[in-house]
Specification:
Blueprint lengths: L2 E4 L2 H4 L4 H14 L2 E4 L11 H4 L1 H18 L4 E3 L2 H16 L1 H12 L9 E3 H6 L1 H11 L7 E4 L22 H8 L3 E2 L18 H17 L4 E4 L2 H9 L1 H8 L7 E3 H8 L4 H4 L23
Parallel strand pairs: 1-2, 1-3, 3-4, 5-6, 5-7, 7-8
């Protein structure tokens, strides 16, 4: 598992460029080859399937068809929403291969490979082969840095073939945190919604839901929140100042992508991981790998 068709999605080319940056930095360090899909388009994000299911389906099929042009490598993404939508499109193709292929061929002039595999970056990092590479390089790791692992409402759902982990009791982010030398804290709100795309129409909802998550993580002793979704990151990093003013927080909790957490443990610099783009400062120097690991 070394070559992937890479689907960054809209957020990772815009507001979440640091996530894309950290994925590419890890790929280079761990010997993973990413080939960005040519001609990819928005997956439909969070609202498309509710507003227009047919259009949402076509967006997924479009991207699967373009991934097939890259080759037969698994399709990799870092966004939980993109993963959810591309996986749904893949399951549609698997369930109705002839109908889906005919529809995509008539609209795009390209067929969709029903065997294409859709993966989230967390699955790749946790795979035995890649986890062994991380283990060999991580040294002393992050010295027991306490983190709250937050999955949100999309990453592990729905259950079934192709899911990242158990839908109700996932462990993949905690396993990756331990691999990085961090210590996950017990965190009952790890599957709750952060408010998703309601930040614009109903910021009060986002500040309430995300505020509860941040407050519990702080109360549980977490020094950072670990996420695997750019929307979750935006709601709890970018919005954290407004949340703090509204709820009277006297703390600021850094919010890291899981790729940034693993990257720090491998000795990658804050610049390479895009940590300076965060709104809540990340004290990466204080979390430097133990045992004098080099920072590159």
């Amino acid at each position: 598992m070394n070559r992937f068709s890479y689907f960054p999605g809209c957020s990772l080319h815009a507001t979440a460029r640091e996530y894309d940056q950290s994925i590419r930095a890890l790929a280079g360090t761990l010997g993973l080859e990413l080939k960005e899909i040519e001609g990819w388009c928005c997956c439909g994000a969070t609202p498309a399937h509710a507003l227009d299911p047919q259009s949402a389906s076509l967006l997924g099929l479009w991207n699967l068809a373009h991934a097939a042009r890259t080759g037969k490598d698994p399709l990799l993404t870092g966004c939980a929403a993109c993963f959810s939508h591309l996986r749904a499109a893949r399951e549609e193709v698997a369930a109705h291969p002839e109908a889906a292929s005919a529809r995509s061929s008539s609209l795009f002039g390209m067929a969709v490979d029903p065997a294409i595999e859709v993966l989230h970056i967390a699955q790749v990092l946790a795979s035995p082969e890649v986890a062994d590479r991380i283990r060999a390089k991580v040294g002393g790791g992050l010295g027991g840095l306490k983190v709250a692992c937050y999955y949100g409402c999309l990453l592990t759902r729905p259950a079934g073939p192709g899911a990242v982990d158990d839908a109700e009791n996932p462990r993949i982010l905690e396993d990756l945190a331990r691999l990085a030398g961090a210590e996950p804290v017990p965190f009952p709100l790890r599957l709750d919604c952060c408010g998703a795309s309601m930040a614009l129409p109903r910021p009060d909802i986002v500040r309430d839901l995300s505020g509860r998550i941040l407050e519990m993580a702080h109360e549980r002793g977490a020094q950072a929140l670990v996420v695997a979704c750019p929307l979750c990151h935006s709601n709890m990093d970018f919005q954290q100042g407004a949340i703090a003013r509204q709820r009277g927080f006297e703390f600021r909790l850094p919010v890291l992508y899981v790729t940034q957490l693993v990257g720090l443990a491998l000795g990658l610099s804050a610049e390479r991981l895009g940590l300076k783009r965060h709104f809540v400062p990340v004290p990466a120097g204080e979390w430097a790998p133990a045992q004098g690991a080099s920072v590159v």
